[in-house]
């Protein structure tokens, strides 16, 4: 009888172990959809993924662009700076990831201050595409600030934004911060080597 009881207990233990393992397997499969949804979201916007991976490779702020941005910030100090990211390049400025090789910039994070300094190294022959996208951004911002009487200074600053490029496919956009009174055109020409 003792042997039979041991066999029943052993069989019960094996069955319980199998049930526990099956339960653990179930929770493992429930995490699989989350992983596949992450993969799906990364496929959803290849341009953002490319720009984000380019940023990871250090193209957001090469030394040459850092120097240009710092020169422009000396002339146009931006308060409460917000660093422009890959997502901003595509969604805010409407610039295609394959039109640029690197970029660096900041904008003001203060309500009613449109201050911006952005330097972009366009891909070969793509500078005009970038200038066109920045001009469209400028028009959109003028319309946005035009909706608010209290943002009249910001609207004026956006209307007077300086956008320029040179033969090396370097593109610059500068919008004066509300506190800036300097000549931004001269600063941009200096950065562009004009």
Could you explain the architecture of this structure?
- A hairpin with a 4-residue loop joins strand 4 (162-165) and strand 5.
- The chain has 7 helices and 5 strands; from the N terminus they run H-H-H-E-H-E-E-H-H-E-E-H.
- The longest helix is centred in the N-terminal third of the chain and has 43 residues, at 2-44.
- Helix 5 runs antiparallel to helix 6 (152-159).
- The protein is α+β, with helices and mostly antiparallel strands and 194 residues long.
- A 5-stranded antiparallel sheet has the order 1-2-3-5-4, sandwiched between helices.
Summary of the model, kept short:
With 194 residues, the chain is α+β, with helices and mostly antiparallel strands. The chain contains 7 helices and 5 strands, in the order H-H-H-E-H-E-E-H-H-E-E-H. The termini are far apart.
List the helices and strands and how they pair.
Elements: H1 2-44, H2 46-56, H3 63-75, E1 81-83, H4 86-91, E2 100-108, E3 116-122, H5 127-145, H6 152-159, E4 162-165, E5 170-175, H7 184-192
Antiparallel strand pairs: 1-2, 2-3, 3-5, 4-5
**Poorly predicted ranges:** 25-58
What is the percentage of strand-forming residues? 5-15%
- Secondary-structure element sequence? HHHEHEEHHEEH
Main pleated-sheet profile: 5 strands, antiparallel
Distance between the termini: 101 Å
Oligomer: single chain
Total DSSP helices: 7
Question: Any idea what the radius of gyration is?
Answer: 28 Å
Number of strands: 5
Query: Level of helix content?
Result: 55-70%
Please state how the strands of the largest beta sheet are arranged side by side. Answer: 1-2-3-5-4
Structural class: alpha+beta
Mean pLDDT: 78
Q: What is the overall shape?
A: globular
